[in-house]
Amino acid sequence: MTLPFRTAALYQFARFDDPAGLRDGIEACCRAHGVQGTLLLAHEGINGTIAGSPAAIDAVIAHLRTLPGCADLAVKYAWAPTEPFHRLKVRLKREIVTMGQPDLDPLTDVGTYVAPEEWDALINRPDTVVIDTRNDYEVAIGTFPGAINPETRSFRDFPAWFRANRDQLTAGKKKVAMFCTGGIRCEKSTAFLKAEGIEEVYHLQGGILNYLEKMPADQVSWKGECFVFDERVAVTPDLAPGTHVLCRACRRPVSPEERQSPLYEEGISCPACHADLDDDKRARLAERHRQEELARKRGERHVGARMDKD
Fold first, then answer.
1. Catalytic residue at 70?
2. pLDDT beyond 50 at 261
């Protein structure tokens, strides 16, 4: 059965001379079709995830493909039973994915794209080191077997982590293969490694989501769930909504087992952040959760219950 809401995760590195001038048209198109979500615009391109009816998403994607350099905009689609977003945001940023390396240009030098069908053969080679470029809480709920976890809290931490561990990572290895959720972080991380002098750098084309979409279910090597930046929180290997929920305090995914912990309070805290909350923050979270519950009982949406990737 087809679910009512279609989600579209997208990005495109392009040269936008005037991203501010593109913003109003994009926002108007989204609002005209009732599309919600977050889109980030910068001089280097566009990134984001949106959701709406299939026809509405098609209309917005058609508009985005008229932007400079976006004719071949790649999109990863999925379905959701309820609206994954609670509002629309079209924001201007310095970077569409923040790495803190302003001189990198993914349009000029990135790693070699690897199709999902060829990915497992590459990462199983003995001369390949495999790196998961996502943050620690994302890796914790699912990854490819044998992938190295940098244990970074932010993508900004990746360059320092690689430089500190470069010799150990590349010892006896000729190839570096990297992956992320939708592919965008690998555009920058592979460009970074190339700038650091690593020659054979590869990345999973379209990221984990594209891999799960394209690969037959009985051939998927991925283990666990994949964190996504919307109200689904995580998806299973068949791209259905997963078993994790969102901690509203720290915005980390919380597993069914963690929800059995006395440190988990719905809408307030989870085992990862319980000790970090003071009484004031706990009280504010409790009140927000109370308002959300009241709105839910009335059949309304509480706009405070949101999840955005900035």
1. no
2. yes
Task: Compute the distance between CA of residue 45 and CA of residue 28 in angstroms, rounded to an integer.
Answer: 19
For residues 51 and 84, the answer to whether their CB atoms sit within 8 Å is yes
Q: How far apart are CA 250 and CA 120, in angstroms?
A: 33
| Per-residue confidence band for 302, with pLDDT thresholds at 50, 70 and 90 | low
Cα separation, 294 vs 302, in Å, equals 9
Q: What's the number of CA atoms in the CB half-sphere (13 Å) around residue 16?
A: 25
Is the separation of the CB atoms in 169 and 148 below 8 Å? yes
Distances in Å between the Cα of 196 and the Cα atoms of 122, 189, 210, 249 are 22, 10, 28, 37
From the DSSP assignment, how many helices (H) and strands (E) are in the chain?
A: 8, 15
For 220-237, what is each residue's pLDDT tens digit?
A: 999 999 999 887 899 999
Note whether 43 and 15 are within 8 A (CB).
yes
Alpha carbon 19 to its chain's center: 22
DSSP 8-state assignment for residue 6: E
Cα 176 from Cα 192, distance rounded (Å): 12
Sequence-distant (6+) residues with CB within 8 A of 134 are 180, 181, 185, 227
CB atoms within 10 A of CB 55: 10
Cβ neighbors of 284 (< 8 A, separation 6 or more) are none
Measured distance CA(131)–CA(9) in Å, rounded: 22
Active-site hit among 30, 180, 270, 273: 180
**183-232 residue pLDDT tens:** 999 999 999 999 999 999 999 999 999 999 999 989 999 999 999 988 78
| Maximal C-alpha separation, the chain | 61
Supply the pTM of this predicted model: 0.86
Distance between CA atoms of residues 279 and 136, nearest Å: 27
